[in-house]
Amino acid sequence: MSEAGTHKPSVAAFDFDGTLTRRDTLLPFLRYLFGDAQVARQALLLSPTLVRYGLGLLDNGSAKERVFVRCLAGMGMDELERAGERFAALVLPGLLRQEALQRLEWHKQQGHRCVAISASLELYVRPWAIKAGFDDVLATRLEMQPDDRVTGKLSGANCYGAEKVRRLEALLGSRSGYTLYAYGDSRGDRELLSYADHAWYRKMPG
Fold this sequence. Notes:
Layout: H1 3-6, E1 10-14, H2 26-34, H3 36-45, H4 47-54, H5 60-72, H6 77-90, H7 98-109, E2 113-121, H8 122-132, E3 136-140, E4 142-144, E5 150-154, H9 162-172, E6 179-184, H10 190-195, E7 198-201
Parallel strand pairs: 1-2, 1-6, 2-3, 6-7
Antiparallel strand pairs: 4-5
């Protein structure tokens, strides 16, 4: 068989917060939605949850869900998606790491399949990522009621840690079928980075 016939396709999986961006994006999104004063009030009410999470007594998904229930429960998904699209267009560009975007552009030029994979909310990661040229977006989703209002709970698992690998497997199938490049910056990316053929932690390659 020819070399071209045996060549495996390549996939580049990028974490979002702290890898493509310079910081976590949830707080900026909540501030965009509600304003600083309301976010500060909610933070006081959520302080026991935030302290427990900071001490390692509460996992990432549970802490996030408590924040969402407090802040987002009862809101319409359409309203949130529109806000997510505006946030993606107006705020996210100012939070991006240029070196990460350069690496993304390199993968696109090579014809690699590019996947954004994030514990952040899909409602703002997806519109930004699709516009940036990603082929697929795997992120955290919110549960909806029959009237299309969100409960604040997560729909499925938080896209964090081992869940990132599970989501990638569900999307792409057998790991033997492609070469994987992975980029991450935190403990939530460890399993994804371990899963990859070529992994970069925090600092993008030059």
